[in-house]
Amino acid sequence: MTDASVPSDPHATPAAASPEAIGHNLDSVRGRIAAACRRVGRDPGEVRLLPVSKTVSEERIRMAYAAGCRYLGENKVQEALRKHDALPELDDLKWSIIGHLQTNKAKHVARFASEFQALDSLRVAEALDRRLEAEGRTLDVFVQVNSSGEASKFGLAPADVPDFVRELPNYPRLRVLGLMTLALFSSDTERVRACFVRMRELRERLRDAAVGGVSVEGLSMGMSGDYEVAIEEGATVVRVGQSIFGARSLPDSYYWPADDPRT
Is a pLDDT exceeding 70 seen at residue 195? Predict the structure, then answer.
């Protein structure tokens, strides 16, 4: 049952239950990505769409695969691992973990994930690097930044990011692609936009300083309700779930901390 206290997503669609329906929604989202890029003179090819499949069943993931999806994002490690192990036939399907990670689950991420978008702790960086070395693998990562300043959110304060990034070359199994954020959950577009502007400006400062020789070109920001604004401010990855798969059956409180304004 959906929690009535959760604000409904105006961009969510009815549950897509066929490859054709998912494909239609993907085309719609890509069209909106392209339109947002045109408004600010960007090439749509600069923006990667990451479909987010949290709460989506294995059956519907197979439909998404048939519709062309080869990269999916998941918030919860255990849910992602279960789906990965249940779909061995989709051997070119890649998984991005976009939610907070505890060190004791680093071993799972190191085994199957291709990307981790919520790095905000050197303890997690060390745990991942050690496990990845044992697996003989590398992992693409984004550094998570708390761009809204909300105490309920994970992520580094913007002022702490340069020192954090300087430490990352010590973990050679991690390939840093850029920064990630969750913007303020608000109907006020300009307050949301301010979070994305803050991220773009932080990237520019890091780029100018060539911090630690680490590339931070990527900006993973924007979800179903705000990804067009994020693109206008420089997003290179947008994480979109409900606009592709339809409204989720579980409330957002299942995925965010209990005191997060999203819930």
Answer: yes
Question: What is the pLDDT, as a whole number, of residue 209?
Answer: 78
CA distance linking residue 262 with residue 259, whole number of Å: 8
CATH assignment, 19-246: 3.20.20.10
Rounded to whole angstroms, the Cα distance separating 241 from 49 reads 10
pLDDT (0 to 100) of residue 5: 31
- For 65, the enclosing helix (H) or strand (E) is helix 58-66
Three-state SS string over 195-237 comes to: HHHHHHHHHHHHHHHCHHHCCCCEEECCCCCCHHHHHHCCCCE
78: left (phi over 0), alpha (psi -120 to 50) or beta: alpha
**What region, left, alpha or beta, does residue 68 occupy, with left being phi > 0 and alpha being psi -120 to 50 degrees?**
left
- 143 touches 119 (CB < 8 A): yes
Largest Cα–Cα separation, the chain: 49
For the chain, what are the domain ranges? 19-246
Count CB-CB contacts under 10 A for residue 37: 18
pLDDT tens-digit map of 202-261: 999 998 877 777 889 999 999 999 999 999 999 999 999 999 999 876 555 554 444 343
Letter for the amino acid at 45?
G
Query: Which of 143, 78, 133 shows the shortest CA–CA distance to 110?
Result: 133
